[in-house]
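Hi there,

I know you've been waiting on this one. I reran it after we fixed the sequence typo, so this is the corrected version. Both the input and the resulting structure follow.
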Amino acid sequence: MNTAAPRALTRSTIATYAIGSLGTGGFGALPGLVLVYFLTDTLGIAALAAGILVTAAKVWDVLIDPVIGARSDLSLARRGTRRPVMLLGAILLPILFVLTFAVPAGIGPLASGIWVFVAFVAAATAFSMFQVPYIALPAELTRSYDERTRLLAVRVVVLTIAILLFGAGAPEIRDAFADERLGYLVMALCAAALMGVTLVISSFVAPTGSVVAAPSVSIAATYRAGIAALKRSQPFRALLLTFLLQALATGVMLAGAQYVATWVLGAGVAIIFVSLIGPALLFAPVWAAVSRRIGKERAFVGASVIYGIAALLIVLQLWWPGEWIYLPVALAGAGYAGMQALPMSMLPDVISHDSRRHKIASAGTFGGVWTAGETTGLALGATVLTVVLATSGYLESVANQVVTQPDSAIAGIIISFSIVPAVLIGLSLVTFARYPLRRHDIEHADTEPVDHNAAATHTDREN
């Protein structure tokens, strides 16, 4: 039986787990930062069409995540570990990521869009094969409320380093080449190499345990299991909706960063990205310390309020444009660190709470639904941005073509980078008010082992 041990995590376990976030952070940040811009300003695809393309690719990701989560639970039951699924995703992702940016020269916008769509869908599927079981692991690595915060705080530090490294460094590699297409390809090759190595290493943190007989379940049953998890766990519903709204807010800002840098500041995206992620790197351990003192929930609300206020201040760029924007961006980065680490450390609390109440192990199912929710938020972030760009008159272009954007488009970029995320953060705090779990719910809970065979057959019993 594979259960979490109530002991302190070793440094080796924490490091091996956290290094995976170099790869997941890179894949999460880089397409969000440059893919829409690559479509509109290099391949000549209209802004709204680019948004639809990226969103459609993410819709597939949302559909496949619960299936991968259920298969991960089945792997845990039959093989005693989630590692095989993670390794397969880690190996496939780098190849498919490079193909996303390897669009052949000489084909038109329509064919280019189809190429990117197919390759990105495949890459996102491989990413989910690693990511879904990866985020389920903390619930199995330790039962401790504070140890989970410690594990996820280190992970978020590494995640933040990855976002900084990929977000600031990758565009610099791209911009080093006069040929934009070649620049994107070299950028993708460098990023893919780092992703692949770190994800393969991190796959080996997945614990191993005993094997039990477990029947196969249908794809329909996996969706029923995900819906059942949502129905029976009110804490999960509240936390998931909150995180989805915040992923939408950060997705809008992430996708808009390149546009703000190019059309508002007239500078490279690296500076604005460092302004956002640098403070996040510094504040990740701060939020972990604050949560130990006042609780994860109150610390999370504080981080979210800081992020929302900072985003709202940026709207003043409409009337007083200037480099002072880096100050509220840095303040948003400080809040962003808590917005990432604290919900991730609450998720294993939710999973273990559900497992104790219902005597089943379904961390993979929860992880699949969670990843689907996060993916939905990030995908809709790009969609919201492109809708604002399209309605404000943004002009697309092909590689090396010079265009002048109308004032309405510049205003649309600023609004999408400020008011839109601020409103979404406010809504997320409303949904989070319904999250009920606190420290005593986790620390004083029953520690009875969970039946993984029951987890594998639970989807059949739902019918």
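Quick highlight: The radius of gyration is 21 Å.

Best,
R. S.
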